[in-house]
Amino acid sequence: MADPGVAGVTRRRRATFAAGRGSSLQPGNGGSVAARLSSRGQSGDSPGKKKRGSPEDATRLEGKSDKHKGRNVKASDDMLSCHRAQESLLSSASGYNNYRGVLNWCVVMLVLSNARLFLENLLRHGILVDPIQVVSLFLKDPYSWPAACLVIVSNVFILVALYTERQLSKGSFSECVGLAAHCVNLTAVLTFPAAVVLAVPSVTPVGGSFALGVHTILFLKLYSYRDVNMWCRDLSSAKAKKLSRSLSCPSGFSGDDSKVCYPGNLSMKDMYYYVFAPTLCYELNFPRSPRVRKTFLVRRLVEMLFFTQLLVALTQQWMIPIIQSSMKPLEDMDLSRMMERLLRLAVPNHLMWLMFFYWFFHSSLNFSAELLRFGDRQFYNDWWNAETVTYFWQNWNIPVHKWCLRHFYKPLLKRGFSKKVSQSAVFFLSAFFHEYLVSVPLRMFRLWAFLGMMAQLPLAWFVGNFLHGNYGNAAVWMSLIIGQPFAVLMYVHDYYVLHYRLHTD
Fold it and tell me: Is 407 a residue of the active site?
């Protein structure tokens, strides 16, 4: 039998639960609303009032009930539906731009494809790398070094330019005499080494290119040196006579941080600092770095040595076999095989061009700049993002671009020429030097480099007007990848026919 006391307690509990179910109020925060109202009545309400909530409490409770219902409806909708309006990631409207994985995939595919070509080359030709043969590219006779002698002779042109400027600053030379002296000196800088390369058979093509490259750089530097000093003389003459000598450096200034003024800059030390500095534009006071960072200097030196060996190895192992196998299709004028050889040559040629860019514009120029504490290290900009041909030529070689802008393009504009004519003149000058650096060392004149540079004008117009964004960038890359190996094949074929085929016949 059940205990009567326990049964009574059970009946009371059931009655309480029944009363709770009969009420219309919902429980909240862990307790019933009736309990909260009863406690509120006990604490402050008068005994005569009924124990129920005010209208405001009822409204608030109904709002909470609606929120709970809304949450339940939303949860049920999420369970029933899994779609919403959105764009695909590859659509331009999606705004998605994180393609880092695609870039990594392209790099992996590039490495794998080139590894296959490298293994195929080794299996077909064996190991062709011989660093000792590189010496023969510069020298034929170890007792006669004409290319090195040409580089040493370049000091004569440097001293002539410095002497002329000193005489002009003193008034010993008139402006007409000084201009004539500079013109003769600058003409000799280009013609004398070219005449030696063409007349002396012991000068190799590589040695001749190196010597002519040094003299071309010297020509641009001395031209800028003459212009800047002439501008300083013009500024001096515009001032009063009593202030004309105050433009020279004050005697109280000394040290590396002192400002040099004209004609205090006409010294041997200043001249040779400018000659070795990684710039083509002369200034009286170059920006200087505070110190030489030895770690940075060693890293650049290691990069220079590494990429030099790598370029030589790739030329011997990869480029030369492809070029040799291209002679027969070029002789037979087999267009399909010529195109196949051109595409085969495009990959190693482009990779070597990229390596040369890093070796010269980053490693070598930064090495010389760090050694001389030259502060301006902007040797290149983001040419790889170029969407127009003009942007590429303005940003891949900043020293040459600054020289052309300062000493050639702007002077033409001041003389009344239009922008299109001035731009065409800049491309013409660049085409001349490209042909000069290729045809003279090879001792043949085919104008392939000249025509290739002049072809940049219509290409720049077409890309700038019809191709934009990524399409323009792809066009710039295509011109670099295909245009260079085409010129290489043309020059190699003509050189082979002129120097080997004719002798064999």
Answer: no
Q: Which residues contact 449 (CB under 8 A, 6 or more apart)?
A: 431, 434, 435, 437, 438, 439, 487, 491
Are the CB atoms for 422 and 413 separated by under 8 Å? yes
Tokens in use for 291? 């110190």
**Cβ(310)–Cβ(355) below 8 Å:** yes
8 Å CB contact between 427 and 401? no
Q: Residue 370: pLDDT above 60?
A: yes
Instruction: Using alpha carbons, list the distances in angstroms from residue 330 to 336, 394, 397, 489.
Output: 10, 35, 33, 9
- Run of H or E residues at 48: none
Q: Which of 370, 369, 421 is nearest to 398 (CA)?
A: 369
Token output for 435: 């042909």
Q: What percent of the chain has pLDDT over 70?
A: 75
**pTM of the predicted model as reported, rounded to 2 decimal places:** 0.74
Confidence check: pLDDT of 63 > 80: no
Single-letter amino acid, residue 127? I
Tell me 406's DSSP state. I
Phi and psi (nearest 5°) for 374? -80, 125
For the residues 307-322, what does the mean pLDDT come to?
Answer: 84
Strand, coil or helix: what is 103? helix
pLDDT in the model for residue 24: 41
CA distances from 389 to 213, 398, 410, 473 (A): 24, 15, 20, 9
Most confident of 241-255, 278-292, 442-456: 278-292
Mean per-residue pLDDT of the chain: 78
Catalytic residue among 215, 401, 407, 434: 434
Among 153, 181, 157, which Cα is nearest to 167's? 181
Question: What pLDDT score was predicted for residue 469?
Answer: 85
Nearest by Cα to 453 from 433, 472, 439: 433
The answer to whether 440 and 197 have CB atoms below 8 angstroms apart is: yes
